[in-house]
């Protein structure tokens, strides 16, 4: 008999609320014969204030035992900027070698977009997750003086770039349009840009059916608002991916519906699935948060574990629910979760 | 009697065409008593192919003699990516210490935007121009092998950050809304982020009338499409500024109308004014390019040299022309230049 042993990290703010709905839908969609075990972890601001810990080695050992991780959101104004981001989220992505940060963008019927004319949007960004300017390399000298110098070092390796580029080609190959766009800034960041572009062009030889192109990250933001239909799969660096996926989420329905996966494709470590949005402390505890992004992250999780039919059922339920929601009064967090749970079970 | 001694760099592709119109409007707007002298320079792809030179020390000495520089666009597919960008454009910005890269965004009446509902957009980005990931620091080892490592180093100094932050506070103070937003990624790039945030907060003490806020660069791209009216003045790092100003241009009428100034506020070196767009080789020589961005860059140039009334006349002429253009068949490059020249003279 099959089973899923899931680590659940609700985290801070609305993380608690949306994860509850994600689990509700997960339970509803799974066939009877699949045993779902969950273990909840208390990472986030509260634990940090109580113990000073963000993520210990023992925590990592424990998390490692799971098949996958579902994360709500981590972050609170009471914790200095960077502490939980670097000490928990990035630490986990790096420790579990989540080098494929997967962020699909699809504008569903009936969903509001800030763009005029309801353009067609259906692409996926493959963001590198373990290199670039996110490595924490760099430092500060003469801190706090008028002679302070602070550096940030973007580290890019052939090993790290090739594996994520290869993953992106595989995904492009599997999609009907078979198109892959490299986004970088190779005219200015010439060292990293040369590495990315070279490897991209080399791997492209092995995928003759995939159409490729290259655009600078600045130009990419223009296309994302003027011609998002030009994109099918995008592969890009950690920081550029961070920036363009927030923009991509904004144009394709907002961060209320943007899902993501932090994936370790080899399966050596559990992958982690989370909504793109943050902990939104301003609306926490009010039942106002939209759990859709978390539910869609559960779909990514299921697909990663091989439950494709169940993932499809969630995607279809969300599409139907969003169409029904259009023009209706806003529903509560649990109201949306309930509706989705009914749909996926039905 | 007054005079302007201008260096003119038409450059590549449509650069030639749009600069001609910029000069036409400049001549038309200047009072009789101002003597305009121009000297044309041949930088760009043609000279690079002929001589291998992009910008020599002798060129810099010669350019240094001018009051200001008007640039069209540099870049051609026949030159490898990065050669002209690093060898000409960035070299000039660094050599002349253009640390204030000024990029206003204003959605004028009648101008098409990809955003629904014609939002109010009127802000200016003060992009740092001489530091950050643009310094060319970094390198490559084991190039071309499977063990290649490429690094890019973002260099940030208290000196460099403070002067641009101060400039931005001055600009915010001089505007009706008096609001300044720092855009960075201080939760991940903690070394540089700490320096930027600290200096920003320190300088803020001296400007009690200016309202300040901070947002991460990824979130900034969301606001630029969902709520651009929230911005008045933005100050940011070189790379973040590059990215968000292309997006800002896209939402406020496109790069056809986006102007910029590479400013050395001390006047030690001449400042350079250029449209945000590139050389667009695909439409070069066809009279299709919109010279408006160059004409608006001429207005920035005039304001920098103290010709405020003339700059205002150009801005008003452009606004009137854009309103008139709405819904009309596209005019040629020189047709638009002629119309603007008539308006500013009248
Ligand atoms: C919270 C932050 C560290 C994170 C990132 O920059 O990756 C977030 O913006 C994201 O995109 O998941
Ligand atoms: C051409 C390129 C080097 C340049 C930059 O990145 O600064 C351009 O994108 C700009 O914004 O002026």
UniProtKB/TrEMBL annotation, chains A, B:
Binding site for Mg(2+): 218, 242, 246
Enzyme class per UniProt: oxidoreductase
Pathway involvement of the protein, from the record: Amino-acid biosynthesis; L-leucine biosynthesis; L-leucine from 3-methyl-2-oxobutanoate: step 3/4
Record's keyword terms, sorted: Amino-acid biosynthesis, Branched-chain amino acid biosynthesis, Cytoplasm, Leucine biosynthesis, Magnesium, Manganese, Metal-binding, NAD, Oxidoreductase
Gene3D superfamilies, per database record: Isopropylmalate Dehydrogenase
Subcellular location: Cytoplasm
Residues that bind substrate: 93, 103, 127, 218
Pfam families attached to this UniProt entry: Iso_dh (PF00180)
Co-factor binding details: Binds 1 Mg(2+) or Mn(2+) ion per subunit.
Sample GO molecular function, one term: 3-isopropylmalate dehydrogenase activity
Domain Isopropylmalate dehydrogenase-like positions: 5-340
Record's keyword annotation contains NAD: yes
Site (Important for catalysis): 134, 185
Positions with a binding annotation for NAD(+): 278-290
EC numbers, comma separated: 1.1.1.85
Reactions catalysed: (2R,3S)-3-isopropylmalate + NAD(+) = 4-methyl-2-oxopentanoate + CO2 + NADH
Cofactor(s) in the UniProt record: Mn(2+); Mg(2+)
Role played: Catalyzes the oxidation of 3-carboxy-2-hydroxy-4-methylpentanoate (3-isopropylmalate) to 3-carboxy-4-methyl-2-oxopentanoate. The product decarboxylates to 4-methyl-2 oxopentanoate.
Subunit structure: Homodimer.
Record family assignment: Belongs to the isocitrate and isopropylmalate dehydrogenases family. LeuB type 2 subfamily.
Annotated HAMAP family: LeuB_type2
Protein name: 3-isopropylmalate dehydrogenase
Organism the protein comes from: Streptomyces cyanogenus
Gene: leuB
